[in-house]
Amino acid sequence: MSLSLDSQLDDALGKKTADALTRAFGMATVGDLLTHYPRRYASLGELTPILDLPIGETVTIVAEVLGTRMRRMRNRPGAMLEVVIGDGIGQMTLTFFGKHQGALEWREKELWPGRRGVFSGKVSEYRDSLQFAHPQYELLDDELEARQRADERVQRPIPIYPATSTIASWQVQKIVGQVLDDLDAVPDPLPANLRQEERLLDARTALEHVHRPPTHSAIDPAVRTLRMHEALVLQTALLQQREFVRAMSAIPRPAAPGGLLQRFDAALPYELTPDQRTVGVNIAADLTAAWPMNRLVQGEVGSGKTLVALRAMLQVAESGGQAALIAPTEVLASQHLRSITRTLGPDLAAELMPTLLTGQLSAPVRRKAALRVASGQSLIVIGTHALLSEKTTFADLALVVVDEQHRFGVEQREALRAKGTSPHALVLTATPIPRTVAMTVFGDLDTSTIRTLPSGRAGIQTFVAPLAEHPGWFSRVWERAAEEIAQGRQVFAVCAAIDTEKKTAEPDAAPLPPAARRSGA
């Protein structure tokens, strides 16, 4: 049979096997199967440490049979075969049950001491001993062949695949091998000169060596090649998205002399930093272009990213356009509302009417907010994922601002943009993004960086307190916070996760020091 990456699995393997792979891994095509890569490799010379196996997880190990014992069940009819296997360090038991002893004798005959194999099952514990109950396994050659090909076998890695309770790693290995035997030439996404320059393999060889490596040294070139394929596909998709946006027509949103933006700048009690001015000039130019802006602004906390975004909001508001700022949490959205309202001042705030729209608002408050947004009365809208709701509509959405892009996907950003007619997009992040990562993850965005803090702004010190590993540090963390608060400084405690929708029981915490309590930390 001749197969390609687009061939359907039921044509390649039969309906029963294809359905099993679909249920277990969501696979539909040969390409789906061949991109289910091994998670690691074992060999006859490298047995998995049995002592480190996690209880309750489905795993695959390479081990040697040490002994067997057949016995009758005590409390019910039937027999049980116990097979002890080991890796030279630890031991565990394979347990098989049968209606009678004869039903298990064939297993006892093939699982004789000295045989090695790949064993897969869910790790459990019985009487302080690890065990597999009714594991799946594949034995590795008979004794004669093992002697004759020992050197070759030690060098040939055994791929260990992500598996489930219904499909073991060795079964995936067999299925992949069957497909590879029938696979035709694979189209190569990389040009020959690039492969030669980077010492990469052709696509067909890379797939062969990642699934059936002849030696351990053959794995790395195959992995490097397939990583390059994935990077190219991702970059191509992002560039396609970029060109798709640039093919759209946007409504130019220039700032007018004496308009909202000029009034705002004149009222600012401080000067913009050079970086804020530079980024502001770029954004102002983007907002007057024939296609939608798609720009990422990165900068430290306190560098003025929100101020830059607010100036962009004012520029689009001069033509009646609305700006929507989406934040990842209710707390952050509320902070943005307070900060933006305070920065605008009473006169501009009354004209622009900044409005909060989140899922936690009461029904009456949310209806009023949604009405102000839908009617165009509110020109600045701040919210969370509630902005993505089908019920949320805008009169003239001109600018989408995404705070902390790493908490949202491209699809969510585009879902919000779809609520307007080719609106501009501005993405903010305080997460330092190296150029290579920005090219990979944010390839559809132009990138600007604010490197300098406003004058007079104190530096921020950040400390990580791994309390899970050092619970005794808890009291010292708050003592240190109290020392800074006593000097009139602020302290922010950032937790690993904040979820306002899912309430979980918190363990009793040590009381805050008096100074921290007095300062409301």
How would you characterize this protein structure?
The structure is a single chain. With 521 residues, the chain is of the alpha/beta class. Among the domains are: 40-160, OB fold (Dihydrolipoamide Acetyltransferase, E2P) (Beta Barrel), CATH 2.40.50; 260-450, 3-Layer(aba) Sandwich (Rossmann fold); 471-518, no CATH class. The chain is 38% helix and 18% strand. The chain contains 19 helices and 15 strands. It has helices at residues 9-13, 15-25, 30-34, 105-110, 143-148, 150-155, 169-182, 192-198, 203-211, 219-246, 260-267, 274-286, 305-317, 330-352, 363-375, 410-417, 435-441, 474-486, 514-518, and strands at 40-42, 58-72, 79-86, 91-98, 116-126, 129-133, 136-139, 158-160, 294-299, 322-326, 355-357, 380-383, 397-403, 424-429, 446-450. The strands form 3 sheets. Strands 11-12-10-13-14-9-15 form a 7-stranded parallel β-sheet, with helices on both faces. A 5-stranded mixed barrel has the order 2-3-4-6-5. The radius of gyration is 31 Å and the shape is elongated. Residues 145-150 and 498-521 have low confidence and may be disordered.
